[in-house]
C-alpha cells in the first residue's frame, strides 16, 4: 500500500479515536446522555423557579415552606416519580423564562400561563387549571372599572400590572396606551399602588385579586364586580396554567404529563388545591399544551 494511503488511514483512525473520547465525556452525546429526570431522581430533589404570587406559588409565612397551587401539584407529581423534595428559587415573574433557560432551576412552577409566544422559548406541561382575570380597585369602585375597555379614551386613568405578565399585552392589544400602564415587580407592590392611589386598578388573575382583597382586611380596596374578561379576535380569554421546562428536557416533561393525566382532576388533586381557591370549575378539561401553543387552533388562549 502506498505510504500516503497509510498516512491517511492512520490520520482517520486517530480522528475517530479522538471524536469517540470527546463524545464519551459529553452529557449530550446521542444514546449516552444522562437525562435531567435521572439526575433529579438520583439526588432526590427538583429545583423550581417561582414568583411570589399567591395562590400560585409563595412561601407560607407560618411554616416557611414553598406552597401554592403549582408547587403543591408538582410535589404530588414528583412523589409519584420517586422524588421526595422540591427546592424553590425565588425569581421575578418576568425573569422566570430566561432563568430557566440559563439553568438556574429545573422547572418553572409559578402558575405560568401557556401562550404561543412563550412556547417559542420553552416547553410546557399540559395545563393544571383554567381561570379568568379581575381588577383590584378602590373601595366602591368610584371610576366604575369593570373591564380593560374602561381605560380607553380616559388618558388620566392608570392601570397596574406585574412586569412580564400578559395583562400588559392585553391592555396594549385592546388599545390602552403605554403611558397609561404602570409595571410592578410583584402583586403586593401593585396592590399598594391601588391603595395609595398611584394607579386606578391592578389587573391580575381572578384568584390573585380575590386573595389580595381578602388579605387586605378592609384597606380600602375591593375586587371589581362584575368583571368582563377581555375578548381578543372574537375569543373570550381564559388562562391555562402549567409547568415550564427547557426544550431539551423531554423525558422530564413527558413523565410529568403522564402523571398529570391521571392526577388532574382526581379527588386527591381537588382536595389538595381547594385551600388555594381552586375548584372543579377551574379545571382545564381536555385542553392540551399543544393546542394552546398553536399546534391546534381551536383552543381558547390567554396568558398570565
What would you note in describing this structure?
The structure is a single chain. The longest helix is centred in the first third of the chain and has 23 residues, at 3-25. The protein is built from 11 helices and 15 strands. It is an alpha/beta fold and 304 residues long. It has 2 domains: 36-130 and 239-292, 3-Layer(aba) Sandwich (D-Maltodextrin-Binding Protein, domain 2); 133-236, Periplasmic binding protein-like II (D-Maltodextrin-Binding Protein, domain 2), CATH 3.40.190. The protein has helices at residues 3-25, 36-43, 69-80, 96-101, 116-119, 167-173, 187-195, 206-215, 250-263, 267-273, 289-292; strands at residues 45-50, 58-59, 66-67, 85-90, 107-113, 123-124, 129-131, 133-138, 159-162, 181-184, 201-205, 221-223, 231-232, 235-236, 239-245. Helix 3 (69-80) crosses helix 9.
CATH-defined architecture of the largest domain = 3-Layer(aba) Sandwich
Shape: globular
* SSE pattern: HHEEEHEHEHEEEEHEHEHEEEEHHH
What is the mean pLDDT?
A: 88
Largest sheet: 6 strands, mixed
Q: How many helices does DSSP assign?
A: 11
Helical residue percent band: 25-40%
CATH class identity of the largest domain: Alpha Beta
SSE-based structural type: alpha/beta
Radius of gyration: 23 Å
Question: Which characteristics define this entry?
Answer:
304 residues; alpha/beta; D-Maltodextrin-Binding Protein, domain 2; 2 domains; six-stranded mixed beta sheet; five-stranded mixed beta sheet; 11 helices; 15 strands; globular; disordered C terminus
